[in-house]
Structure formats: structure tokens, C-alpha cells
Amino acid sequence: MMKRLLLQAALALLPVAAFADEGMWMVHAIDQALEKKMQERGLRLSAGEIYNADAPGATVSDAIVSLGFYCTASVISDEGLLITNHHCAYSDLFDLSTPEKNYLEDGYWAFHRQDEIPLKGKEVFFLKRVLDVTDEVAAVSDSLSLRGEHFGSRKLSYLLERRYAGRTGLEASLHSMWAGEKYYLALYQKFTDIRLVGAPPVSIAAFGGDEDNWEWPQHKADFALYRIYDHGEPLVSPWHLRVSEAGFREGDYAMVIGYPGRTDRYSSSYKADYLTRMERPVTNRLRGRQMEIVRKWMDADPAVREKYSDWFFSLSNVQEMQEGEVQCIRRFRVIDEKRAQEKDLPADILQGLADEYAAIEDVEREKAYYRETFIRGVRITPTMLRMSNAKTEEAREEIYRRGIAELDPRVEKELLAYALEEYFGHIPAEVVGHRQDSLYRAFSGDFTALAAHLWDNPLQLMDFITEVKITAFNARERHTGDLTELTRRYTRALYADRSARGLVQYPDANATMRITYGRVSSLDPWDAVHASCWSTPRGLFEKWDPAQHDYALPADFVEAVHDYVGPVNFLTDNDITGGNSGSPVLNARGELIGLAFDGNKESLASDVSYTPGYNKCVCVDIRYILWILRDYVGLERIVKELQ
């Protein structure tokens, strides 16, 4: 009994605020209650110093931009210098690379302003204002209905965005919150002259590769530098973040501002069950085997790595994330948690969702096999689809010539053979096309031989891939209702239930600017296991292995990094998701202390449910970045610009 009382007393002495408050809060809607909570955690700014549309150029949010709404970046000088993650710049570095200049493997540094490389199609967006247009959307909807016009969310977005873009001269984007309970319209200033300033070699930036992805500890210098130009000159930035080398301690306040892409925390228990039991197991297994095939060839031939590294990077990131999502949903009993939330919701909605998911399950599994084999599982498919739409034989040949040049036949034939095996093993006979079935029979189920034949006969491969249409699957579905409408009703019912209980709510992430606050914090991932809140260069040497590509480092870096004594990466308990990559991690004064670049494996249910104590944000320390720029690279012009 005494031991039990001593244990209870010890637990009572643990920090009460060890966990961050859940929430990806809309940055324009920081009310007094939220401001007070943030200040109680340690924030030294007011809400108006974080976002204030009536004081442009004077708030923290004015220095934070969206990179094409797939990543986040920050302005860190008054000359338009941007910092973001290396993995956000990965495709740019891949596209710029040639056999003679491999910017992924070797890195790139512009030692002079004229060396900064223009990037085609790159866009950054500054948020200028957010407007509540809920009533206006209702008025437009009523007007269209009275005129008897059919409309959906796309038409509403088009009409509202065109109206406000015309009035303001800014980019306008309409967003539905809580399935149409609220509508907000964001206005952005867009810049399109973006240039690459610098990025470390991928061996330094992504040390540990996909094996360390979602793990802790990590030791990545995951950063890259861009610059915004305006009319040919560096942008004169009205506001930029101050970089802090003062450091931090465990428990210090930390906030992240960025553009999280998507969460689904208002999803039902039925959807969570459907994902973990049916869809994810299929996609995770297929993608895992595809990764094995590509990794084998990449390790064997540097030329294959050069062609496939970008594709492999995207594939591995999604596969590991979704595999971890299934594990975490089960581990943290997310489905049970959601069922408890649903106990007071209308019975007809819950029964409708149960019936609908049961009705579509078999066909959706078949669709998943189709998508993961011939739509996404072989890289030649986009070329085949473009060929099928070509008007002339000459155009078709040109499309094929360009597409095939980007691929390696050895890799593609093995991927194709695996796709054929899974396709014929799981797609019902009534969906398999006539030409597909004939080839299968002709080769007696020898998928390696069939893959080689199709690869050598591109027109037959084109016919094979394009023969099955998604309508063939749809014809087999047995719908009981409208899943989209049921999901909308469910979301609004859950929102209303929480509102009635006085709960303050944030909407699901949807690529709008959000703020999340928490603290620098350690991690206890499993019983009796404790992990510090930061990693050090010691971990680099513990993992370093020149024989493994993911754990190799440049020889001069191995020698130089002995002199760095600060943290490499660190953990906070900020609530983040995809799209937050590159987001600034700020201290209590709004100064830059790092960049968010990953989550931990224990947080991978976070798209559907937040788990206190386990949701962590993995960050690269700004001091490590500055050491690389100043001491390893010698990029003094950038270091001076930051000062």
C-alpha cells in the first residue's frame, strides 16, 4: 500500500502541462481565450503581433509563406531570402541536376547573387487577409437555386474567388470549414520569380534516408534557401523573422506557423475502420514491395538512383506514413475513441455510414489494387495515357521517346511484372479486359515474360493499360446512399454536438495558415523507454556508415562536424501534419529557432486523431543550419545578410 501511495505522489509531482494543447488554429482567429492559453504556456507576444491584417508588414505571419500550398517557408532577411526544408526543394534539385552536376548528391551554394538559379513554375504566396464569407456564400447559393442552376463547391469557389480577385487584385481562395458550417476566403499576394540560393548534399540534409524517416532520434540538416525576386530585383521584405542563436531548454515555449495540408479529425469510426482494415493494408503491402524493387536497383547502379530518387523519395514517405498510421490507430484505440464521440449523434447518420462502407468495401479494395498496380505502380503509365490521347502517329512516337528516356528498362520491367501478378491475382474476371485476358492466357501466367513482351511492344502496353476504365468498377458497386452527403451530415452533427457542450473547435487542416503552440519536449515512446528532446553530432558518428548510401557523409563534413557542439535536431509537441514541412519553429518572442521537417512514428494517427504525449514535431536546429552555412560551407554573404 505504501509503495502505491509513493507512486501516486511521484506521478502527482510530474509537470501538469507536459502535453501541448491540441489544435491547428486558424491564425486570423486567435481570440482572447486562445491568446491567454498561449501566454500561460510562455508566449511573450500578443495575438495582434502574430496576425493583424490592418497592420501589414508588422506581424510574424507576414514573414511566412506557402510554397505552392505543398510546403511552408519563412522570410529571414529584408532581401527576400527564404528558408524551408531540403525535402521541399528536393524536386527542384532533382530537376536541375545533370550527370555532370548532381545538385542532389553534391548540394548547391550560390556564393554570388548572380549564381542564384531561377526556377520554372515556382510560386510563393503571402497571406494578406482572411474574410468570413459564410453569409455571402449562403446568398450566392440561394440566388443560384432560385434561378434553377445546378452548382457545387467548385462553382461557388469560382464565383467568390473571381469576385474578390477582381476587387482586390490579389489571389483569392475559398475554403469550407466543418463541411460548410463556415466559409473563409483567403487573399494572397503571389510571386513567381523564385531562385535557388543553396542546399546541402542530400547525404547531410537527409542523413538516415527513409530508414530514419518518422523515427527519433534523427540527425538531418533538412533545409534549403530560396530568394524571392520582384521585377528582377530581390524582394524588399516589409517583415522578416529574426534568427535566434540563444538556444532553448526543455519545456520552453515553441510555436509553429504554416500551411498544414489535410487532416480528417472529424472523420467517423466507420471510415477509420475502413482505412485500417481494408484500404491501407492493400496499398502499404504493394508500395512496400515496389520500394524493395527500386531500392535494389538504386543501390546497384548510380544511374538508376539519378533517375528514380525523386520518385522513390515520394513513394517511401507516403508508404511509411500510412503503415505507421494503421499501427497507431490500433495502438491508441482511435476507433473506440471515435465511437465514444458518436454516442449522441443521430442514429440515421451512423446507420447510413455503416451500410455505405459495407456496400462499397469489396469494390474499393479492387480499385485499390488497380490504382496501385497500373495507375501508380509503374512509371510508364503517364506516358501510355498521353500516347492514347495523341492525334497522330508522329506525336505518339515523340511522347514515347521522351517518356522512355526518363526510365530504366530493367526497373520498369520488374515493376511491370509485379503489377501484372497483383492485378491478375486480385481483379475479378468481369473487370479484366478482353485483350488483357488474351495476353494472360497466351503467356500462361508467366508475368516476367509477359512484362518483357509488353515493354518491347509499346502499342500493346498502351492498349493493355488503357483498356480498363474506372467505370467498370463503379458498375459493380452497390450503393445504399450518398457517402459524400452522409459524411457532410456527420461532420456538421459532430460540430454541433461539440458546440452545444461549449468546446472550442478548430477546423480540419486544408492548406490555410494555422498556428499551433506547445513546448520543447522529450518523448516516452514506449513503457520504460525515454528519449531526450534533442540529438547531437554523436548520433551522426554512431550511425555513419560509408558503405550505406543513406548513412554515408562527405569526408570533409565528417572531419568538420567534430567542431560542432550544439543540438542537431530537436522535438516539440506542436500539432502538425503534411504541408507544415519547412514551417518556422518560433520561441516565445517569435524568433526562429528551427524548422519543422517530420513527425514521429507514434504520431502517425494524427490525421484522424490527436494523441496527447505522443504527437511530436521533429525540427532541425537553426544553430546547426548556421554552423553549416558559416563554418562548413563558408557562405559568409548569407550569414551577414541574416545578421
Structural notes for this entry:
- There is one protein chain.
- With 643 residues, the chain is an alpha+beta fold.
- The protein has 3 domains: 25-122 and 193-264 and 510-642, Beta Barrel (Thrombin, subunit H), CATH 2.40.10.120; 124-191, no CATH class; 269-474, no CATH class.
- Helices cover 47% and strands 14% of the residues.
- It has 25 helices and 18 strands.
- Strands 2, 3, 4, 5, 6, 7, 8, 9, 10, 11 and 12 form an 11-stranded antiparallel β-sheet that branches.
- A hairpin with a 5-residue loop joins strand 3 and strand 4 (81-84).
- The model is unreliable at 1-18 (pLDDT under 50).
Number of helices, where a helix is a run of at least 4 consecutive DSSP H or I residues? 25
Q: How many discrete structural domains? A: 3
CATH hierarchy, class of the largest domain: Mainly Beta
> Helical percent range?
40-55%
Unreliable sequence segments: 1-18
Number of strands: 18
> Do you know the CATH topology of the largest domain?
Thrombin, subunit H
The chain-level structural class is: alpha+beta
What's the short story on this structure?
The chain is of the alpha+beta class and 643 residues long.
